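Re: the multi-chain job from yesterday

Posting the exact lines I submitted so nobody has to dig through the queue logs.
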Amino acid sequence: MSYRLGVDVGGTNTDAVIVSPDGSVVAKVKRPVTDDVVTSIRIAVREVLSASGRSASDITHAMLGTTQVTNAIIERRNLNRVGVVRIGAPATLAIPPLTSWPDDLRRAVDQESLVVRGGFEFDGREIAALDLHAVADFVDRVRADISVLAVSSVFSPVNADHELAVLDLVGTRWPDLPVSLSSEIGSIGLLERENATVLNAAVTNVARRAASAFRDAVEQAGVHAELFLTQNDGTLMTLDYAMRYPILTVACGLTNSMRGAAYLSGVTEAVVIDVGGTSTDVGVIRNGFPRESSMAVEVGGVRTNFRMPDLISLGLGGGSLVKGDPSSVSVGPRSLGHRLVLEGRSFGGGTLTFTDVANAVGAARIGTHRPEVDTDLAQRAYARGIAMVEESIDRIKTSAQDVPLVAVGGGSALLPDRLEGVTQVRRPEHYDVANAIGAAIAKVSGRTDRVYALEGRQREDVLAEAQTLAEAEAVRAGADPDRLEVVQVEEIPLAYMPGNATRVRVVVVGPLAAPKPTLG
Amino acid sequence: MRTINHDDLAALTIGATVLGTGGGGDPYIGRLMAEAAVAAHGPITMLAVDELPQEGLVIPAAMIGAPTVIVEKIPNGSEMRKALAALERLLDRKTVAIMSIEAGGLNSIVPLALAAELGLPLVDADSMGRAFPEVQMTSFTIHGVSATPMVLVDDKGNSVTIETINNKWTEALARVATVQMGGSALAAPYPVTTAQVRQAAIRGTMSLAIEIGHIVGTPGQGADERIRRLLERMRGAVLFRGKIRDVLRRTTGGFTRGTATMEGHGPDSGSILRVEFQNENLLAVRDGRPVAMVPDLISVLDQETIRPITTESLTYGQRVVVVTTPCHEVWRTPRGLEIAGPRYFGYEFDYVPFQEGGVA
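And the result, structure tokens for all chains:
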């Protein structure tokens, strides 16, 4: 039997689900996150297993979505000391690595940096020959002070040879020094890609601890499964792969919830709304995957350019404070958060929240008490909150047509059945653990994002080459090579450039390869 | 005379994006370079045109190239210094001030790094009053000032001196050299005298950009109040308030052209505004009638934050205020319209200046 275990570690709860071979949810649990995280994973895994009635040996795959890496960056905790090598001199010297970083984060990463000769032009010519001696001297000098190396190179998304040469050098001379390469992490935009690469290097230890805690927790429950982490685009990484690219997990919680929503509702094109206690996230699924943002995304105050779901976050949730009188009512962004169940009027407390006005207008039935609320105030406050939701839905849509909406998250019960711009509000079963389900059902992806000179080449050849690279990446990440599917092909011609220089992005996804049969 | 400090650089970045009218390149890299130079060498002195010495050489500096290359291959940092030194050698004169060739986009702020580094004053002026896509589209060209000798320097230290028979040739040859240099380069074009600056430059545009940035960036003030102050300062008008219903883009001749269609609300309920762009916003058409067109400025702002939205980030659903500002009068002359009027950008009609209630 091939059952899947999905675990999501969020800010408040650790959720776990078990999904059967036919894709149905067999069991689910929700437990408060413990300080060490691992204890709550262990408890959740053990309880969900026992609730499922399955034996531990039925679980063949276990997937974890976790915010541990994100939190380490935001809180500047347990970060590795990073040596930064940028290949690109004499270009790029005008803006040294980590220039725009917040001081406290730069101190926490405590980097030594070097800019060496090398790198490529957009058309593949060398800016300069790579100065490997300078790299060797640098690593020699700083080896005792750093625990990981981050390497970026100009136009490495077009040609990664110089980054790979540094990887070879380090692998030969300092085999125990982990290396993060920018060409494997980000796309065009040197500073943003370099920032992402340094962050990736800085969370090496945090990611190792999170992975080994997950492995221990699963094994202690008697489960011997293949283990995966989920990444921002809603697909899976093997633990080995995740150890090399831990930064790709930074927004996985939001993505998992959107993927889970798509899966549970059976729609692949929809707007998804995830309503929590303090905030609401609104995103779009297309082809069953979250639409990606095209804007620069800040992580912990640092500008990066990696793949993140395109989301609108609202300061509106079940615990949002309602203030003012009927003539000028405000809802949020301050919230009772998890204290809703102690202080909210619907739970016998004295504080007026969005949950209370939703109850008062008859839109929801949540809590233990019937709150006393002025009818006019309740109606206006509820209408205000719903107007915020409707505007966000309208902003995130890509066309004027009405779209289906899938509502998940604990607070989604507060939404009405009809919303403007929406054909239908769907509330799938198990909406409260959509994120853990999103982890459990995740597929594997591979992608390319490079600039090609199309002149003198057949466009089809270029696209085929890009697709081959993306497929190889997907297979490396654990996909079944026979069941890959191209989900995105994008060609963006570069303005002011001759030779038809074009940026090509290809994304392929596939289901996990079946566990390998053992011979003999 | 005034000084430009770190806060002014952040404001200039925002103001330059408003004056960039949707294009002009992301000023982010220029801002980082200028901030580093100000941190190392102290604040920049900015002189009004009238405060320039009677005699002397003024050198504009600009970055030329493809936006995608500019965000990937950051400059070396010495290019502008080298270009300026080469021009000084060629002309056998010393520079008295640095200038921005365009007040919109990346090139508004790029020369500030050079001014800070060399301790030279910046002129409170530019030669476009906005952003334009080509080197010859300047008030200098209109006044018959040559763009050359112009020096281009790349990150590797190569330099090219260009001397051409007119400024359109400068654009053509500079583009070819830039591609060979790897798609981006720093340029010192239009070496001008202070007298030519007094005659031909568009005055006060750098302080305008900084003030716009401070108005847009002031938190705590309502959107309507900030728009009112912005328009008062720019002598502009609101064209339309509405929501983007559709954005279409297509690539022709190496440029991205496109159209954003907006549905009105509030006083504009029931109306449709179409904004056409090629790098920059070129034309605004309300219910089938043109209401504003290049070379007047057309800027699309986010209704809540008042932040300018560039043409590449226009998307469905954005709540926007479209504003227009009259271009400098030099663009409304026959020569100005020949260089940057609607016909230059492929439209089959003559320029009509913006008027309240629609044009023509």
